[in-house]
Specification:
76 residues, mainly alpha, 4 helices, elongated
Length: 76
Amino acid sequence: MKSKEKENLKTLSVDELKVHGRDIEKQLFQIKFKRTSSPLENPLQIRTARRKAAMIKTLLRAKEAALPKTAAEVKK
């Protein structure tokens, strides 16, 4: 993943990251499904999609951890 893409992902909000995460997971599923029926033109698509999904999950987790907790969550 290029550094410009990483910077763009870092500027997104939590909701936007969730949407991008779902899109990447859907794309990854489709790539894997195509791979079972016929060979892929570019097998590295799977690796890049997995890594992008991991980056999004990491950023999402960091942003959610940085959010202030409510009083109900603190009591648990």
